[in-house]
């Protein structure tokens, strides 16, 4: 128990050193630290020279104007050192911020979907903004103080001891007690800062969701209800922030005591020494002045520890992003157009799913149970089923977003775990349920499908997706910036841009997850035609809610609660599968009702 406590106490300094060791740009850090050491030394030189000047003024030494010149020179050196230390600190901070930003964003790109889905985007945003800002402050304004403060204190102490050791010992006797107390008070700051950062993460998450769902919020008059959820979270974050502020305020006032206490003691005992003739008034003034050089840095220590703990907590949160595990990078790089067996054998299985079961990490119920599917070259398979039946989960597994643990998936005759993930995804054109348009213009958003393609290729892909018409009518056509579109572009139009991107990719496997769900009936039937001709030469899996859109698929697989409960063509299923028939009838009735 005792050992554990001691380990915790020493862990702050250890962790802090580790953080400094982890951060790159050691050359700049060395620059910061070397100038800091000289700055610390020059404080003692300044203090001592002031003492010499003072002694001259009270008549103990001879005074000359040259002495003032020396003083000016010392101050000039001090200023030059401050200039270079500030410059090095700014550069060190700026470069580290850039480095941490890049490392964390790169890691977000390289980590698995599984890792990203575990946390909420709001918390990631909080880590990449608030917490990174704290590290910026640490590298810019604080790191040098971890050398400057203790070193100046030690040098001042040595100098004071040399000047009058008895008075020094008396003056500083209380300081160790205050330091221990301040360390105890400073201890919870790290924990409180982490709690505050977590609370901010939650608020960011809520803000993101509310902005995304603003239309629903307005349409359902959810403001009051959502505020009921939001307000306690804001109050919680304010409470956490107040807790941090209280600890800091306490530490600040303690810092005040640390800086004043030695003066009271010195004046008291100094007066006594003067009364018995052991000290002159000039000596006491010089001593008190020098004591400043000890008490000021010491007074900074509690604050330094408190802030350092907060910075360390922020660093740990940023580190948790940098430490996310990377997706596996090895595996075979296969391409479907290079001597694959199915190039010669048209009936060959492109995708084989055997005895596949899957449970999300941390979930208790499996989302897929004993799935067996065989998809031949250029076959069009439709996955249907009610919400939550496991359709999207299957597409996530096909894309290698989650590892297959039970059963197996083979693509091109190779086990998915043998595939290189980038190569695998290169061979699959995927249109997700939620459409994403990235920062940039419309053309760029389509071009992501095949970066090397020319303008003609982009227009032709847009035409196939029935997007060309509305794009060319935008203010700046294909060069309209997505941000400028804001919410002025409809869900269906976004979906058509997303489809154009997938058409442009021209992969052998096409995976559409509700890719036409936001389209009106007319656009959908047009796109359906485009899809039919596009998908003729492709192996495709189409996930659809609207059964009318997949009636012509070669095979329809019906999922219910993660299990396959029917397989066959639309007509076969209507005849023989009660569950499919009821799904179809329900949709027909709904369709009729909507049409009325
Ligand atoms: N990341 C996740 N972690 C845990 N459980 C999940 C996760 N994603 C989905 N699930 C669960 O897995 C089951 C299948 O979900 P899935 O998204 O595959 O259904 P779906 O058929 O695609 O539904 P929908 O048509 O509504 O998109 C559901 O019970 C869902 O709650």
From TrEMBL:
A single MF term (Gene Ontology): ABC-type oligopeptide transporter activity
Record domain ABC transporter: where: 351-586
Subcellular location: Cell membrane
Listed GO CC annotations: plasma membrane
Domain ABC transmembrane type-1, residue spans: 31-310
Bilayer disposition of the protein: Multi-pass membrane protein
Transmembrane segments: 27-46, 66-88, 143-162, 168-186, 249-273
Keywords linked to the UniProt accession: ATP-binding, Membrane, Nucleotide-binding, Transmembrane, Transmembrane helix
PROSITE patterns in the record: ABC_TM1F (PS50929), ABC_TRANSPORTER_1 (PS00211), ABC_TRANSPORTER_2 (PS50893)
The UniProt record lists the keyword Repressor: no
InterPro entries: AAA+_ATPase (IPR003593), ABC1_TM_dom (IPR011527), ABC1_TM_sf (IPR036640), ABC_transporter-like_ATP-bd (IPR003439), ABC_transporter-like_CS (IPR017871), P-loop_NTPase (IPR027417), Type_1_exporter (IPR039421)
Pfam families found in the cross-reference section: ABC_membrane, ABC_tran
Main subcellular localisation: membrane
The keyword Transcription is annotated on this UniProt entry: no
Name the UniProt record assigns to this protein: ABC transporter ATP-binding protein
Protein species of origin: Isachenkonia alkalipeptolytica
């Amino acid at each position: 128990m005792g050992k554990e406590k001691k380990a915790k106490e020493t862990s702050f300094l250890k962790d802090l050193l580790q953080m400094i060791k982890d951060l790159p740009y050691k050359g700049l850090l060395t620059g910061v630290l070397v100038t800091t050491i000289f700055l610390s030394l020059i404080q003692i030189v300044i203090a001592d020279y002031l003492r010499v000047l003072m002694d001259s003024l009270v008549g103990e030494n001879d005074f000359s104007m040259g002495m003032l010149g020396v003083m000016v020179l010392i101050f000039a050196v001090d200023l030059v050192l401050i200039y270079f230390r500030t410059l090095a600190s700014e550069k060190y901070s700026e470069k580290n911020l850039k480095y941490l930003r890049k490392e964390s964003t790169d890691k977000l790109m390289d980590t698995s979907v599984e890792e990203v889905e575990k946390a909420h985007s709001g918390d990631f945003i909080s880590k990449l903004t608030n917490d990174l800002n704290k590290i910026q402050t640490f590298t810019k304004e604080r790191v040098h103080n971890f050398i400057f403060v203790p070193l100046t204190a030690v040098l001042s102490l040595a100098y004071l001891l040399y000047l009058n050791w008895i008075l020094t010992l008396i003056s500083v006797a209380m300081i160790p007690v205050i330091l221990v107390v301040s360390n105890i008070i400073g201890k919870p700051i790290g924990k409180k800062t982490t709690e505050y950062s977590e609370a901010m993460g939650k608020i960011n998450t809520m803000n993101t969701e509310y902005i995304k769902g603003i239309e629903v919020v307005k349409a359902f008059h959810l403001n009051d209800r959502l505020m009921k959820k939001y307000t306690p979270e804001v109050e919680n974050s304010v409470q956490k922030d107040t807790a941090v502020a209280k600890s800091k305020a306490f530490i600040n006032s303690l810092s005040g005591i640390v800086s004043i206490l030695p003066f009271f003691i010195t004046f008291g005992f100094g007066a006594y020494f003067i009364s018995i003739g052991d000290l002159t008034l000039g000596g006491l003034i010089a001593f008190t002045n020098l004591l400043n050089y000890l008490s000021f840095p010491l007074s900074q220590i509690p604050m330094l520890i408190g802030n350092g703990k907060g910075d360390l907590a922020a660093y740990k949160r940023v580190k948790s992003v940098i430490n996310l595990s990377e997706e596996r990078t090895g595996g075979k790089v296969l391409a479907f157009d290079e001597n694959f067996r199915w190039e010669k054998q048209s009936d060959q299985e492109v995708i084989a799913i055997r005895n596949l079961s899957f449970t999300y990490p941390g979930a208790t119920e499996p989302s897929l149970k004993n799935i067996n599917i065989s998809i031949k070259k250029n076959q069009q398979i439709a996955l249907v089923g009610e919400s939550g039946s496991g359709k999207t989960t299957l597409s996530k597994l096909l894309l290698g977003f989650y590892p297959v643990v039970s059963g197996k998936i083979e693509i091109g005759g190779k086990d998915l775990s043998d595939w290189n993930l980038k190569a695998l995804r290169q061979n699959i054109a995927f249109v997700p349920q939620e459409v994403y348009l990235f920062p940039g213009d419309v053309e760029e958003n389509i071009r992501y499908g095949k970066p090397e393609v020319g303008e003609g290729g982009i227009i032709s892909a847009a035409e196939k997706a029935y997007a060309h018409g509305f794009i060319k009518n935008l203010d700046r056509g294909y060069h309209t910036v997505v941000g400028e579109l804001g919410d002025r572009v409809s869900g269906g139009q976004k979906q058509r841009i997303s489809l154009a991107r997938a058409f442009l990719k021209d992969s052998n496997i096409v995976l559409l997850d509700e890719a036409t769900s936001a389209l009106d009936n007319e656009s959908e039937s047009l796109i359906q035609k485009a899809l039919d001709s596009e998908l003729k030469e492709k192996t495709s899996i189409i996930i659809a809610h609207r059964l009318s859109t997949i009636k012509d698929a070669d095979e329809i697989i019906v999922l219910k609660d993660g299990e396959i409960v029917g397989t066959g063509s639309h007509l076969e299923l209507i005849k023989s599968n009660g569950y499919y028939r009821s799904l179809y009838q329900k949709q027909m009735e709904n369709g009729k009702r909507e049409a009325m």
